[in-house]
Amino acid sequence: RHYLDKISASSHLNAWLEVYEVEALETAALLDKQRHSGSPLGRLHGVIVGIKDVICHKDHKVSAASRVLENFTSVYSATATDRLLADEAIIIGRQNCDEFAMGSSNENSAYGPVRNAIDEERVPGGSSGGSAVAVQAGMCMVSLGSDTGGSVRQPADFCGIVGMKPSYGSISRYGLIAYASSFDQIGILAKNVDDVKLVLDVIAGADEFDSTVKQKPSHIPALKKSYRFCYFQNALEHSSLDPTISEEIKGFIKKLTGEGHTVEPVAFDLLDYIVPTYYVLTTAEASSNLSRYDGVKYGYRNSNKENNLNELYQQTRSEGFGPEVKRRILLGTFVLSAGYFDAYFTKAQKVRRLLVDKTLKIFEEYDAIILPTVPTPAYKIGEKKDPVEIFLADIYTVYANLVGIPAISLPLFKNDKGLPFGLQLMSSQNNELHLLSLSKLLI
Ligand code: GLN
To answer: How does it assemble (predicted)?
Structure first.
């Protein structure tokens, strides 16, 4: 009831696309009975969770914040959803986000922007903007988002909370609406690292419905007294980076050194290639993944009875998708087209391979990489209009998805306007538990 009241008091923030009021109260009552009967309790017994509107929940609507899936009901649950429920979490509703998780400000939702509770004129980040604000404003305890290129970490940064993307292959993607399948991971947004760890433990691990998922690591390396960190010098000197953020992160690095850790700069000459590589590969994958929304199989269908099949596809997709999704489908089909495939898609795959090789080398020497999460704090709704400028602000987050490593944004700082921003840490692949322990050590 407390959380439902919070949600209705904060409805102007537009964080939720649907709230399951009756169902949540019924589940709470059932769980209450179970607790009093003395039977053993699930690890998330009574924990109030919100899920981004790209994660399927059987017999509940899921729309990817798109008109094309308006009124579509899931016929099965995502593995992550099933595991939350099996451990007795209460899913209280589905959360607003950028359409098909494409965006950085939640302004690309077909159902209106989400507002940042710290300053309602500002964006909460995206694409998991509703999920971040729901935790930020105390409307649920934790949220599940999705992170293809920063969509959990970036809104966590803008909202002053913790956001973590585990390694690729850590959490099943079964029942997660696909944006770019070789990048997508479900991530967790919470107020603290312990909550992230608990939820990760419940939902991660092998799944017969997603062959890319690995077994959960069975042991966490013990904490050491001191660690070896590195940072990318050119990332901290980058022209797009807000000077306050740069100063605070440099100050934090000094503090770590003072505490006996080693922190060293490494040369990272691929920095300027990561955003273009990310947008070539993700739009290519998206153009293929989104071809299924054709007005025949799912959701919205153009109702003009005179249409032949091609016209039905065309009109359904023209009316169903928003401008950002269309832009990305066009970009994706372009980079995959016969004449340009080698120049863009193949080239980007080669850069991705170089990045993986470079990353393996880095982790031979260092325990973790330190980066900002986002170059600037949250901006005003409507302020940024140039899509390329918005793409370029993904400079610090997309790297982890390109190489499949875990990454976390920790809310460490605030600027003089009281706007929060985070510190980002990344560790080697499949080392998320270690990354979480390290995070706790540092904050
Ligand atoms: N901002 C990035 C994009 O627009 C990240 C999206 C995501 O992680 N889903 O693609």
So the answer is: Heterotrimer of A, B and C subunits.
The b/e string for 366-394 (b: 16+ C-beta within 10 A; e otherwise) is: bbbbbbbbbbbbbbebeebeeeeebbbbb
Catalytic (active site) residue 52: yes
Query: What is the DSSP pairing of strand 228-232 with strand 368-372?
Result: parallel
CA distance 165 to 151: 9
Helical segments of 337-442, H only:
341, 347-365, 387-392, 398-403, 432-442
Q: Over the stretch 40-65, which tens digit does the pLDDT of each residue have?
A: 999 999 999 999 999 999 999 999 99
Closest CA to 91 of 35, 169, 7: 7
What ipTM goes with this model?
0.98
Residue 427 DSSP one-character state: -
CA distances 311 to 197, 266, 301, 324, Å, are 49, 54, 11, 22
User: What is this structure's pTM?
Assistant: 0.97
Instruction: Please tell me the number of Cα atoms within 13 Å of 327 on its side-chain side.
Output: 12
Q: Is 101 in the pocket of ligand 1 (CB under 6 A)?
A: yes
The dihedral sign for the CA sequence 220, 221, 226, 230: negative
Q: Which is the closest atom of ligand 1 to the Cα of 390?
A: 1
Q: Which domains does the chain have, with CATH numbers?
A: 2-203 (3.90.1300.10)
Q: How many angstroms does the Cα of residue 179 sit away from the middle of ligand 1?
A: 9
Q: Which of 10, 109, 151, 437 is catalytic?
A: 151
How far is residue 424's CA from residue 411's CA, in Å, rounded to a whole number? Answer: 9
End-to-end CA gap in the chain:
32
